[in-house]
Amino acid sequence: MGLAPLPDGKVACLKCGKTLSNEANGKRHYATAHQPNQPEKCKICQKLCKNRQARDAHLRKFHGVTPAMMKNVIKPPPLPPARRAILEAYEEARTVKPLPPSSRPPTDSDY
Ligand SMILES: [Zn+2]
Ligand SMILES: [Zn+2]
């Protein structure tokens, strides 16, 4: 880590000489300003990878997707169970055809 603690509790960035008010700020400055590899989270399983390259490799390996795919694919939100049940009932009603009125062949006993 390129930070040097200063006697007054502040830290100095050794890369650019900037002085930060405390260590946390110093770390954040160093990470945002001087570390190209930021931790990246997997959008699918929320795994935190050490950098974007690792995250992309993880995506490919574990989920079979590329970052480009991730950008384009907008996942539809899962249907709540009640709504899904209604849709299924609707699909069922649509696929079951009502019997035609003449389906029962007339027999002698009908007359
Ligand atoms: Zn710096
Ligand atoms: Zn993942």
Q: Can you characterise this structure?
A:
The chain has 111 residues and is α+β, with helices and mostly antiparallel strands. The protein folds into two domains: 3-34; 37-95, no CATH class. It has helices at 23-34, 52-63, 67-72, 81-95, and strands spanning 3-5, 11-13, 19-20, 40-41, 48-49. The strands form two sheets. It has a three-stranded antiparallel beta sheet. A hairpin with a 5-residue loop joins strand 1 (3-5) and strand 2 (11-13). It is rod-shaped, with a radius of gyration of 32 Å. The termini are far apart.
Share of β-strand residues: 5-15%
Query: What's the number of extended β-strand segments?
Result: 5
Present as ligands are: zinc ion
SSE pattern: EEEHEEHHH
**How many separate domains make up the residues?**
2
Overall pLDDT level: 83
What overall form do the CA principal axes indicate?
Answer: rod-shaped
* Cα-atom radius of gyration: 32 Å
The poorly predicted ranges are none
Helix and strand content put the structural class at: alpha+beta
What portion of residues is helical?
40-55%
Biggest sheet strand order reads 1-2-3
Major sheet size, sense and barrel closure: 3 strands, antiparallel
